[in-house]
Queue: 3 jobs
Job 1
Amino acid sequence: MKKRIGILTSGGDCPGLNAVIRAVVKYANLRGWEVFGIPRGTDGFIDYVRGEITEEQLRIQPHGYDLPGVLQGLDILQFMSGSVLGSLSKGNPRDEKVIKDILEGYKRLKLDALIAIGGDGSLDIIYDLAKKGGWNLVVIPKTIDNDVAFTERSVGFDTACNTVTQALYDLTFTAASHERIMVVQVMGRDAGHLSLHSGIAGGADCILIPELTPKLTEETLQGLCDYIAQLRRDGRKFALIVIAEGVRGLDGKKDPHIAETLAALLKERCHQLSCTDKEDYRCLAQVDTRATILGHLQRCGVPTYFDRIIATMFAIKAVDLIGEECYNRLVIWQNGTVDSKSLEQIMPMIKWCHQENICPSPVDPEGFMVKTALSLGIYLGENRTLPKTFPIESSQSEKRIPAPELVGSNPE
Ligand code: F6P
């Protein structure tokens, strides 16, 4: 049966969003369906209801992008980061009039279903709107933080890992040339996946993530100084320290410049230690530190092979779910392939985490990524407190690393 479906992107952008949009439009059009791109997250529904945009303007056609000369007709969406639809990260709409217009927009467009490409926060918000409006919703997970529960991977994470890994590689040589300690602040909200994965791949000496180091402490600083002193005694004068943005300061408060704070603290502590009578700390006298906050560069870049593949597979799965009228699902990546979960089943756990201010999908402190880092001798901090877990069901034991090369050989 022919369907009219909507698609929107919500929350922070990331590489691979356009690849999802492209695949949804291509596949849906092949099935003879119509696709409507809702601009700026759910706010696009409001624009439509208020007459600021027409149904025809919302309709997305494949190859709708005019490029000059021989590039005419090239579908560049697969390569571009950002979102052609625009995205919104302004939290839950509370104004009743705004909510009414959003729900009216879905109804007036006569949509059979909506594909929302969103992260952990958007999932919660759009689920509530969908319940209120009786929408047929399918959610595709995206975020460089990789913190959406029940999926091992979200669109955008792989590219961000590559970006951070490359940045660490680049910083290695300037760190070495000036015999400096480079402290690199990595995004991830309250999760340490991006820091841990790229820290390992990028050759970091120390990686501080909120799951293991919720806040800086005197012990952490001492541990880092000891680590640097040992490196120096072994003949290496530089070091790379990755700190996830979710790690709090000494006062337990969020610090948007936590890398700069740590760099300053480390320099001071190293000098203090070098002035004590301990021979082992003499090598810390000349320690110099610098901080780099990678910032929104982590959300940019051409999506990697793997992000384009999961973006495309997620899109096809979402369209298939709608074709089967199997609604209110989160598309997920598990054991090297796509699957889906019922939102009804998973949302209570996710909402509980949000209420308790707990990351719904943290790094498993006992998992293999942590073991891998520790096995390389990477310093992961002193605090190893286990996170609180949901009393009924835990979201997942670990974000397993899928093996992209296995995708093609999966018997499915
Ligand atoms: O969730 C993605 C993310 O990039 C986080 O890693 C980061 O904390 C946040 O978004 C930044 O948000 P904004 O772009 O609104 O500053």
Job 2
Amino acid sequence: MSVYIHETSRTFHLQNQQFSYIMKVLPNGHMGQLYFGRPIHDRENYDYLLEKCIRSHSASPDLLEGFSLEHVRQEYPVYGSADFRQGAVEILQENGSRLCDFVYRGYRIIEGKPRLTGLPATYVEDESDAQTLVLNLSDAVTGVELELFYTVFREMGVLTRSAHFINKGSKAVQLTRAMSLSLDLPDDQYDWIQFSGSWARERMPVTHRLSEGIHAIESLRGHSSHQQNPFVILKRPRTDEFSGEAMGFSFVYSGNFLAQAEVDTYQVTRFMMGIHPTWFSWKLESGDDFTTPEVVLAYTREGLNDLSQTFHRLFQNHLIRGEYRHKVRPILINNWEATYFDFNEEKLLAIAAKAKECGVEMFVLDDGWFGARRNDYAGLGDWYPAKELLPDGIAGLSEKIEQMGMKFGLWFEPEMVNPDSDLYRAHPDWVLQIPDRKNSLARHQLVLDFSRPEVVDYIYGLVSGILRESRISYVKWDMNRSITECGSQAYPADRQGEIFHRYILGVYDLYERLTAEFPHILFESCAGGGGRFDAGLLYYAPQAWTSDDTDAVERIKIQYGTSYGYPVSSMGSHVSAVPNHQLNRITPLKTRAETAFFGTYGYELDLNRLSEEEIADVRKYTQFMKDHRELLQFGTFYRLRSPFESNEPAWMVVSGDQKEAIVGSFRILSKANQAFMRLRLAGLREDLLYEVEGMGTFYGDELMGAGLVTSDAATGKVGENIMPSGDFSSVIYLLKAVK
Ligand code: GLA
């Protein structure tokens, strides 16, 4: 890893073993982008990469010979002058001007990686793991200074970026657009992959070929959203899972975002990612500063699996914090789908007792335990245990659960309030709202104004009180509606554009305080399932409820899609009842368990309703997870066959020393007289002999080259470990290197 600085040509070359990223100061003082891709030799000067032509209709404020902003690639472009593409920054000034002109002033290098105050971000513990280049620019007219941060990780194809503004001028300005990253690429030969969906159908990969014009995804819902995940891949058309060039952009942020690629008429691709400019502005009084959230840019030449593995390693080692960062996750049972709101202590204890018998380690009480929350019309915000359900409160229940030998976890939805609640009656002004306008309800609830510190303090007081007085090992932090009418009574008119962002900062603040005060508690984030599954929240909560859809067939797709950007250890996955509550589909218990193995694993049903035979299986699956969760959650994950393209999707995890692996192989619909099927594995050592349980021994090169024969009863049995016949089947293959 090196940062080469060439003072004479004013060139900056960031390099590690995976990529080179090269910039230079342009003739007009702006920062130009020269190259991003495979590592290349360092040299004093790469000016041959600068386009020096003036075309018809191009403009140049400085009348510089052969230089047009429209035709050079830039680092942090501005709209309004001679570049007609979308800009990364816009600053509204007192005189109505929106133009700025950020000119290079200098640089500094920081060993390691500085923190971003109040924001989640990747980090290094050892300074030698990363280097940060900070470029200083300034706009002479407004006096606003800009610092562009570039951190290169030593061991990984990762570069992170963010921008920091300081108003050194004498007048206030409004920042109305401040992207975290802008990157101009010299061609448009890319497939853009986005992860789209809706409630219960999150993160389905959707691919578009880039072409002239703008392609964008966004969230304007106040949370990163089920609809579009703040994660995009650009890959070369021929890149597949195992080879080829690709780059991934992950926004370490949980609120409104924009990710877009603008291809101009010369096939230059401008990629941008940051806080969505719609309804965003930030007032900078003289002396104030603003930091954008960070974007993680990962790069590979070895295919999409390698790109995903880079994100998995980065997030597990340099984003997720706390005790559970590298720790296997407890196997839990959650009562939501078992009881919904219809429970009392006796019922909960019966569910917990049966789960304990099956080896489950933690009982989680979901929604409905507080205030008047007997259904979803009332009680949100009143975080007091409902004594009619729980005579000894949460403290008493958690103690009883611990006496049974299990840990206890609890659900909160801290950011919300039902109009029918004591909290709302006492503080009707504590919700997001716009004067003289009606508030929209969603799931009968309103959104608390987390831009106000006193609201966050109040909720902190209640939640931390319960965490302190009870024996709580896990918190599920939910967020069940999108934000509408985003205004705050606590801020003046010229600061209303700050509320979306201030809201998220309030959420981060509460997370920070709770996770710091209760380091032993495992936090799982949730937003109606996977509506806020993003890198920002992983900084506080090492796992997230992947989706409210617990159907095994849908979960294969959702977990497969999620795996492009997020590690297995972050995906909450539960075995639920059949017929499935979201789809009414009946899948075998085996398939439900074997899908959930590739996640944090838990149950979401009343085990008392299962037969003796099924309970024996549940015990077996629970034990399997205990025996293998280290590898399942922290091994190297490979997508082998896509559920979006194949009736037989498959994935696998491989241990760090490559001596163990677990393959999950699924078949959606059964077929008569099937083909003779093989599955080519990945990530093994060619020269090692592996025992595949129930199948025989094979060399790594055989398993990766010829493949593991997975044929079943339809074609004649091969080995003992065969796919059961019937729809929605699965089989797990355990591989162990033999001497
Ligand atoms: C959301 C969550 C569910 C459950 C309910 C409770 O929908 O995603 O898992 O907690 O809220 O109301």
Job 3
Amino acid sequence: MHTKKVTINYLKNSKQKLTMITAYDALFASIFDGFVDMILVGDSLEMSFGGKNDTLEASMDSMIYHTKAVCNGAKLSYIIMDMPFGSVISKEIALKNSVRAYKETNADAIKIEATFNNLEIIKHIIDNGISVVAHIGLIPQNSRCESGYHIKGKSDNEADSLLNLALNLEQAGVTMIVVEGVVESVASKITNSLKIPVIGIGSGANTNGQVLVWSDMFGFFDKFKPKFVKRFLNGKELVQKALTNYIDEVKKGEFPSKEHYYKG
Ligand code: KIV
């Protein structure tokens, strides 16, 4: 449990595995704060909470709204704001939106889904004083153009290209890399080749840490469950059981009882 604000130096020098979880509001951010090293305000909120099929509808306004809420609830964990689809498509647009993210929230860093195409844009943002976490491998914002979600690094070509991209991103100055949906041996090689922390999701155990979407890992989101998700709680079942108790007690007139009354 952290008692002081987590800094990038702490994350870079930690000898222990790092933990990251998503949060989208002050309430849950305050529950997770200090337990995990990092909280990610992911655009996954479009799917887990917005009921959408992908993350593409997230906007700068909505990401800023949710990041502000998370920053209100969390004072210890390192906070990362996801940059939504279309928000970093040119140097000018990317810098304007990244500066906005820093000015309007207390996020410690922003996260960008990275390819060779936006490497120079990412460098431009970093050169202007903003910490960037790069997200590589299976990048969810590509799901429409790739017709779904596909594991990356299966061929030698793809594996080499991912390693090369990670090395270039480190060279450009990114703070950390999130590696999603990458075969375990490739994620492992990337981790061993970089000095900055590599955080995995669906990429095996040999990265410097792990990230999961909270509603997946606590069993609230059950539309589908990717192979890499472990349910640490049966959240939906527990909430529905409590809800059934509430409904029963209201119907039987057992709730509210005297202890919940105001006396005149
Ligand atoms: O949006 C998100 O929650 C993410 C994680 C899955 C890494 O990008």
